[in-house]
């Protein structure tokens, strides 16, 4: 086993007592996959190949994410015209202290005519935190899944992804993260111990962001099973040695390990956020693209919707009027509790090489908080590899107003 100064992230000690188990990890994973192959294993709830595939959206929620999920679903149904059925997965034990948390989503299920919404419990004691996402995809009743984090909203009906050439050819579409081997927050470079754990060569590519995934479960049962094994194996070396962050890279790693086909979106993530008085760009939302390079998803990973006034547990105002028109810009910015955070977009100039794509993490003061965590650039004056656009000029400019209205409505149900 290699020992050097940069194979593990800072302050992560390697204990020699774990060396045998570490060395045997890939052997055990390989044996498990071979056993499943011998038994002709298929994922749960997969329909017969002779039948048309069942397509749908999968989400996982817990109480604090319900306003975000409610807003995303209403945007999908009422603004984007998406009629894909939606599965809501949740852990009952996470709802015990908020027994009515799911009421807004159940209201949508009963009153929305745009498509079916169903609810599914996660009872496996191991399927907590990021493993819940993997469990939901693994056990979904859809054959072809678009997984969406609850705080991730498309700007167009995403149904077309199931019929895109890249998906039909590969059966899986993944999206890149901000990080790559020469600019990595999580230590996924060529010398990482990750590659030794998995017994595979270093792969020089963008890391993965799993706020959205499109997977054909009938076609990719084996890699999905391997993802679950990676996430639940004990001891969990990915977690103990910080070799990967949550679930985000486990999908591409499992696919790579099994030489399974997937398409990684080529356009690096952009950022939606605000330009500060000091000419920094504070990105609070990861912007992902479709296979043609057009904006498709806005993932509010640094400032989530709550529908509440700051410090409140219930909405203070009476039922607000709905948005005046689709993607309306005419409502006052202070009409709803959640602040406006999408004033600008920061995108990478594709004429530069990947090594110049460097996203900086920092904290700054904005008009609604003194300590906002940001992904962006500390100085736009020294960021010629990126370009700024005004959010108001985008075709989906009014979407944030609608989402803020929907989130507030969720707290009033």
Automatic annotation (TrEMBL):
It is found in: Endomembrane system; Golgi apparatus membrane; Membrane. Its main location: membrane. GO terms for cellular component: Golgi membrane. Belongs to the MNN1/MNT family. It comes from the Eukaryota. GO terms for molecular function: alpha-1,2-mannosyltransferase activity. Residues 311-331 are annotated as: Disordered. InterPro entries: Alpha_mannosyltransferase (IPR022751), Nucleotide-diphossugar_trans (IPR029044). SUPFAM superfamilies: Nucleotide-diphospho-sugar transferases (SSF53448). The lineage of its organism: Eukaryota, Sar, Stramenopiles, Oomycota, Peronosporomycetes. It is a single-pass membrane protein; Single-pass type II membrane protein. One of its GO terms (biological process) is mannan biosynthetic process. Coiled coil: none annotated. This is Nucleotide-diphospho-sugar transferase. Keywords: Golgi apparatus, Membrane, Signal-anchor, Transferase, Transmembrane, Transmembrane helix.
């Amino acid at each position: 086993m290699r020992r050097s100064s940069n194979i593990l992230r800072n302050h992560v000690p390697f204990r020699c007592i774990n060396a045998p188990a570490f060395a045997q990890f890939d052997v055990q994973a390989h044996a498990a996959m071979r056993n499943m192959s011998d038994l002709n294993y298929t994922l749960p709830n997969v329909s017969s190949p002779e039948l048309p595939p069942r397509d749908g959206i999968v989400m996982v929620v817990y109480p604090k994410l319900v306003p975000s999920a409610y807003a995303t679903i209403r945007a999908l149904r009422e603004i984007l015209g998406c009629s894909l059925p939606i599965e809501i997965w949740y852990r009952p034990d996470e709802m015990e202290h908020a027994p009515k948390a799911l009421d807004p989503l159940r209201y949508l299920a009963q009153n929305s005519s745009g498509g079916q919404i169903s609810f599914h419990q996660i009872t496996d004691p191991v399927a907590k935190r990021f493993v819940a996402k993997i469990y939901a995809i693994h056990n979904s009743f859809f054959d072809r899944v678009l997984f969406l984090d609850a705080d991730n909203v498309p700007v167009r009906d995403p149904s077309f992804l199931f019929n895109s050439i890249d998906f039909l050819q590969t059966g899986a579409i993944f999206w890149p993260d901000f990080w790559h081997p020469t600019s990595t927050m999580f230590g996924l470079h060529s010398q990482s111990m990750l590659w030794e754990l998995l017994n595979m060569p270093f792969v020089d590519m963008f890391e993965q962001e799993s706020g959205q995934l499109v997977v054909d479960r009938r076609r990719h049962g084996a890699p999905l099973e391997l993802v679950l094994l990676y996430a639940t194996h004990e001891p969990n070396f990915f977690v103990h040695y910080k070799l990967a962050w949550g679930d985000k890279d486990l999908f591409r790693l499992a696919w790579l390990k099994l030489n399974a086909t997937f398409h990684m979106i080529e356009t690096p993530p952009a950022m939606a956020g605000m330009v500060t008085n000091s000419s920094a760009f504070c990105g609070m939302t990861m912007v992902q693209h479709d296979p043609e390079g057009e904006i498709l998803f806005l993932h509010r990973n640094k400032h989530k919707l709550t529908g509440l006034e700051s410090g409140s547990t219930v909405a203070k105002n009476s039922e607000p009027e709905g948005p005046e028109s689709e993607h309306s810009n005419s409502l006052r910015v202070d009409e709803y509790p959640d602040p406006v955070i999408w004033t600008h977009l920061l995108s990478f100039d594709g004429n530069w090489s990947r090594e110049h794509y460097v996203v900086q993490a920092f904290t700054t003061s904005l008009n609604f908080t003194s300590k906002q965590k940001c992904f962006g650039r500390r100085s736009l004056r020294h960021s010629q590899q990126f370009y700024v656009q005004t959010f108001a000029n985008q075709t989906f400019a009014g979407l944030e107003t609608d989402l803020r209205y929907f989130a507030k409505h969720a707290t009033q149900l």
